[in-house]
Each structure stands twice: as C-alpha cells, then as structure tokens.
Amino acid sequence: MASNLSYKSFSKFYDIFELIFLLGRKGNPRLGLLDAIGNAPLHVLDVGVGTAASAILVAGHNTQNHVVGIDTSAAMLAAARRRITQRGLTNLEVFNMSAADMRYADESFDVVMASFALHEFEPPLREKTFQEISRVLKPGGIFYVIDFAPQDDRATRIFLKLWALVEPPCFAGFLAMDWHRHLTAYGLRLEDEREYSFSKLYLLRKA
C-alpha cells in the first residue's frame, strides 16, 4: 500500500487501517508475536518498523528485551518516536536504515521480527533483506514474521483480492512464497506457522 500512497500521508492513518483487517475472527497476530517472544534479556531487531506498533507492544510488555527498529521512511520513524516518547519506553530505539544494508555486525541479535512489511518489498530487495536478517541473527536465533497470508476461508480470499488492488504487483508473489522451502537458502528453517485474521505468524530458526 505504501507504494501507492506517500509514506508521509499514510503514516497518519497506518494504525487505523490496521484495525480494519486485525478485527477478523482469528485474532490479532501482534498478540501472537508477543506470546512467542519471551520476556528475557534478548536483543530484538524489528525490520520495517513503521510506526512501531509491534515494537512498542513487545518492548512495553517484555521490559527485559532491548528492541531496535529500522525503517527508511522519515515520516514513519517520526510517528514511531512520538509514540515511544508518549509511552516512556527506554528499551526501544528506532533508526533510519535500509533492511538490505544493515549497519550491524554479524550475529548481533537473538530475535529478528518483521510485521506487515515484507509483502511490500520487491523481490530483489526482499531476498537481500532475508540475507541480511540471516547475517545479523545469532545461530539458534528466531526470525518472526507476521504478514498477509492465503487461508482457506472465503472471507480471507475476498479480502486479499481486494487488498491486492492497493498493493504493489509484488504482493501476489509474496502470497505465493513457499515458507517451508524458500528461506532454507539463507539458513532459516520454518518451525511453526499460526493463522490469524488475514495473516499468519511464521517462526523460522537460524541453524
């Protein structure tokens, strides 16, 4: 969607749009993400942090986590910083940085997460991002993804067809990606996937 609307405008309505598709019968995937990431002294990276909806939820509940978020949109990051300040979170920082060229050392993070961001990445950028995520993730670390996903129920199929109208062309290819096989090239193995409203939570572990 951000490819068809300016980030500056869209950042103001981002969370309102989220409510529309997160109020389905299967629940909010962000809560599933929170359940999956434990409250321990983990170094967590949020790729494509946006307005920091997931990062704030994790950092706010898991006070032992240290969370950093990266994004290339100044407008999104400005909105994220306002929200972080309003909540008084000291264990969450956000930075302007490309997911395809991260300024972090190898094996820097225990956890990497991406929330409703990867479906907007063109294939070359997405593949480079997977490569970078694998590089900065520690061995045994987990990559959590929540994003749109095809499901069997009719309502989800209809919703995704309509949503595709406002997404870039790469959206269809993202939905068709085989999570069981695709990321093995980057040393990431799918361990679990859980269904939520119009979306899934994928858990991939680095070998």
Features:
alpha/beta; 7 strands; 37% helix; globular; disordered N terminus; Rossmann fold; 207 residues; seven-stranded mixed β-sheet
Can you describe this structure in just a few lines?
This protein is of the alpha/beta class. It is 37% helix and 25% strand.
- Rounded average pLDDT: 90
Judged by helices, strands and strand pairing, the structural class is alpha/beta
Estimate the global geometry from the Cα principal axes.
globular
At the third CATH level, what is the topology name? Rossmann fold
What's the topology here?
Layout: H1 7-22, H2 29-36, E1 43-47, H3 53-61, E2 66-71, H4 74-87, E3 92-96, E4 109-115, H5 123-136, E5 137-148, H6 154-163, H7 170-175, E6 188-196, E7 199-206
Parallel strand pairs: 1-2, 1-4, 2-3, 4-5
Antiparallel strand pairs: 5-7, 6-7
Helix pairs in contact: 1-4, 2-3
What does this structure look like?
The chain has 207 residues and is of the alpha/beta class. The protein has a single domain, classed as Rossmann fold (3-Layer(aba) Sandwich), CATH 3.40.50.150. It contains 7 helices and 7 strands, in the order H-H-E-H-E-H-E-E-H-E-H-H-E-E. Helix 1 (7-22) crosses helix 4. The longest helix is centred in the N-terminal third of the chain and has 16 residues, at 7-22. The model is unreliable at 1-11 (pLDDT under 50).
